[in-house]
Amino acid sequence: MMCGGTPWRKEGITIVWDETTWAELDVAYCWNQWQPCTPMGKRAKQQARAFQPGEERLWQQVLREQEEIQAWIEGHPRYQSVIQACLEAMPDIEVQLEKLGSGETLGLTDWFHMKQFLWQFRQLNKTLREQGFSALSLLCPEEFAELEQYLAQLNPGPAWTPAFWIDDAYDDDLRMLRQQLRRLEIKEQERTEQNKRAIEQAYGIRRNRLGTWVVPRNTPLEEMLRKDGRVVCHVETLYDVTFGLREEADGALARLQAQVEAREKAVCVWLTQQFEPVQPSLRQWVRKLTHFDVQWARYQAGRKWGGVRPEWDADRFGLLGAFHPKIAEELAAEGEGVTPIDVEVRRGVTVITGPNMGGKTVALKTIGLIAVLAHYGLFVPARSCRLPLVGWIASMLGDQQSTKQGLSRFGAEVMRLTHWLGQEGAGLLLLDEIGRGTNPAEGTALAQAITKHLSSRSSWTVHVTHYHEVNQLSGIRRYQVAGLCWETLEGEEFEHGKAWRARLSRHMDYRLIPMEEAGTSIAEALRLSMLLGLPEEIVMDAKRRLGGWKDEGEAKAGSG
Q: Which terminus, N or C, of the chain has the lesser number of Cβ atoms within 10 Å?
């Protein structure tokens, strides 16, 4: 279903999430750290699909296997590199299996790949068995014995090696032909050496490291060598000429070479016949290895961000100590730390309010990223995670302006929201300031109406908003960012420049605080504007206007 840049199911039946959601949540940062080692594992990852509702048992099995890998690694840390090396050295034998299935004879290169696969697979199984790794058991004792038999056929000599060649032990006729060939080759080498020495004695020259002679042009020596039938000119330049010994065809040698090649081909035919019946077993072993590689890589990826196993919960997304690994890395590069979030999202709508730069959008991205990772059977960056499997995940976090379609931000936002509201089944919808692309009055009304509509649906929606009216709706869950600690912030002397970002970050409490009832909005934006140097008369005028707007709004609400 999801292969990096194509985040939807290939069958085209149910869109789970789109490229915009994938990009807004920065999923690629974690996705790219999930790196299987084998070519088969890499293909399997490209074809991986997210777990869907109804697949909870299979999903939990995949997660349990990673826990077993984790437990084994903790007890056998030094063998982790051994397993990694075996997986990285594992060749792809898909071509060889296709040939076996079609009756095509495997050649020398094919058998080299086949033996490499069996050798590394044996090493992997042997290590796991000897170190008591019961999880994801690849081969049972009977299968391991079969594997030894197959390797023995590719190691007919007394010494076992991972390399492959047509050993003399395969065929007595082949061994005798090779012995004859070697004797003839030795005689030919001796004859060649004698001829070279004769030429060097006749002309007083010495061959170079390539076994040829380089002589100056337009000299008597060049003229004599050109007339000597034992040598032939190889290369000419403006200054010299290179001569080599003329090769003489040896019919006996050529015939023996052809006979040896025929016997080697016969061995390849015999080996192919031996392995054709076991092709289904080999394919099954490849599938087992691929599953192990993908699971091993899943765990290794989750380990990089200190992930935990997500647990299934039919009704809620419950996160404790959750964070976004990419954002954490970016903050660490600036010498700052990320504030983990605790949040519980139930069916209907959960509204998050708080000050600008308070981390609300980061919270949305964190919730969405964890949901995507969990649906792919990965451990998630949190201290604890409980969530359901959903049919789709959608985010609307950034600037949705579409110049290609000629739409404003507001128009593109409405079209995108309309699309996801029409999705069948329950999903997770992440909204960031819906309605802010139009005038405040209409935007407020629209945000209220959308939130009210979503609160009665079976999906899970998280809506980040500054609209106070949205927070006043009934039937929603509420969170508020703890916000700035004004006492300590205003006690510091403020300086303009880049330092203000770090200063605000030091005094911002990014924790999400549950609100049992609708609270009053805090005009932190005006206080912050004054702190950042906006003229006081502007801020005071804004305060007066804000008070009048609130009074007018309350009067309208009372009359309604």
A: C
In the structure encoding, which two tokens stand for residue 402, read together?
């579409």
Q: Write out pLDDT tens, residues 135-179.
A: 667 899 999 999 999 999 999 988 899 999 999 999 999 999 999
Higher pLDDT, 341 or 528: 341
Residue 297 to residues 20, 89, 459, Cα–Cα distance (Å) = 26, 15, 32
Angle between helices 325-333 and 360-375 (to 10 degrees): 130
Q: Is 532 helix (H, G, I), strand (E, B) or coil?
A: coil
Helix (H) or strand (E) holding 381, with range, is: none
- Give me the DSSP letters along 130-173: HTT--TT----HHHHHHHHHHHHHT--SSS--S-----GGG-HH
Q: What share of the chain is helix, strand, coil (3-state, %, to 5)?
A: 55, 15, 35
Q: Is 120 exposed, middle or buried (0-12, 13-18, 19+ CB in 10 A)?
A: buried
Nearest residue to 511 (alpha-carbon basis) of 403, 359, 395, 331: 359
Angle (nearest 5°) at CA 433 between 524 and 516: 65
Neighbour count for residue 428 (Cβ, 10 Å): 25
3-state SS of 48-78?
CCCCCCCCHHHHHHHHHHHHHHHHHHHHCHH
By residue count, the chain amounts to 560
Q: Reply yes or no on whether the pLDDT at 423 is more than 90.
A: no
List, for residues 246-263, the tens digit of each pLDDT value: 988 778 888 999 999 999
Q: How far apart are CA 170 and CA 156, in angstroms?
A: 6
In the three-class reduction of DSSP (H, G, I as helix; E, B as strand; rest coil), residue 341 is classed as strand
Contact 45, 291 (CB under 8 A): no
Confidence at residue 494, expressed as pLDDT on a 0 to 100 scale: 58
pLDDT at position 408, please?
A: 64
| Triad 17, 23, 7: Cα angle to 5° | 35
Look at residue 542 in the predicted model and tell me its pLDDT: 78
DSSP structural state of residue 479? E
- Token look-up 């084998």 returns 38
pLDDT of residue 39: 97
pLDDT digits (tens, 9 = 90+) for 20-73: 999 999 999 999 999 999 999 999 999 999 999 999 999 999 999 999 999 999
The encoded tokens of residue 351 equal 């509204």
CA angle 453, 454, 460 (to 5 degrees): 170
